[in-house]
């Protein structure tokens, strides 16, 4: 009895450290519960958990004798978002479940993972500045605007790092610069989409269907032979018209998309800058180094897919964002299996370039103008602008969340086994 009490106390302390660390670095509660339960079952114990915003209540009990139980409450520490810690701790739970190492060894591995240094602050500073510059380009900014955004981000993020190091509250500075000095903010970004350069750059490609090359298409020949239907070889003519139609559609597709630089150049450019933005947003959360390239590819794919659906199909911004987010979610599940990382390590940073920050900024700016305006007609226009931009922001955000979550719900059980080194059939989970 005394031996079980000592063992359950040591195990409870480790599980509380494990659970609070996962919660502090940004893991979702389902993963925490499954990982902690997995480790406890490897030692022959069961766990009941209640996770709150500031603390975790945990009851550890013996799987055979429920009278041997302990209940503890542990406060969640303040830590920064860390995807690498989430990935490594998830892999540690599967290692405990499959290989059954001792508690002392698990504690050493846990301390090594937690104390692993983050990415260099100067590298993070540089990549974040490049990400915001790429984000400015996605909104239609010119090189001068990108340079100004890069310099401003470099200075602002450096000040934030220094204030965080000094453990000072930098929220007052945000309030000072964002609200007390509104005239210091540039407003040219609101006119990027209305700029003639942007309209000509991203307009739909138009091809002349009446060029002289059409006479060499099979469709041209079929229009010049209507009399063949009068003859007896009607089946041959129907087959001929069907094949000629397919060939004609393929040639038009090739001319409009494959052989058209006006189509590929904006799409590829959009994907390139989205990849840079995704990398910059990803390094803030300290992902595993092997996951950074995957995040760049998914960010480029998602944003380029939405760009294509928005500009070359009749779909609106919300539906385009939904399909792009769903594609990112499905590819994240595939990449998680190949790279051995949780799917959210790839999907969340890849979604960030598609967040409608422009519409949110317009909503807040229109709200500030509405509060300062005394003109009735101008106030009515500002109310319409607030609702239009605000609803667009909400709908796009919902579309992004639903799209990426739908893929995770489809492969819900598989999403918790991505960090497992052994095959799933090696040992069934109770």
Q: What's the layout of helices and strands?
A:
Elements: H1 2-24, H2 29-42, E1 45-51, E2 55-62, E3 69-75, H3 83-99, H4 103-114, H5 121-138, H6 143-165, H7 171-180, H8 196-201, H9 218-223, H10 234-258, H11 261-284, H12 289-312, H13 317-339, H14 344-351, H15 357-372, H16 376-410
Antiparallel strand pairs: 1-2, 2-3
Helix pairs in contact: 1-2, 1-4, 2-3, 3-4, 5-6, 5-11, 11-12, 11-14, 12-13, 12-14, 13-14, 13-16, 15-16
Summarize the structure.
By secondary structure, this protein is mainly alpha-helical. The protein has helices at residues 2-24, 29-42, 83-99, 103-114, 121-138, 143-165, 171-180, 196-201, 218-223, 234-258, 261-284, 289-312, 317-339, 344-351, 357-372, 376-410, and strands spanning 45-51, 55-62, 69-75.
Strand order of the largest sheet: 1-2-3
Mean pLDDT: 76
Uncertain spans: 175-243, 424-430
Helix content: 55-70%
Compute the gyration radius: what is it?
A: 28 Å
The run of helices and strands is HHEEEHHHHHHHHHHHHHH
* Distance separating the two termini: 25 Å
Largest sheet: 3 strands, antiparallel
Strand content: 5-15%
Number of domains: 4
- The class by helix and strand makeup works out as mainly alpha
Number of strands: 3
Overall 3D form = elongated
The number of helical elements comes to: 16
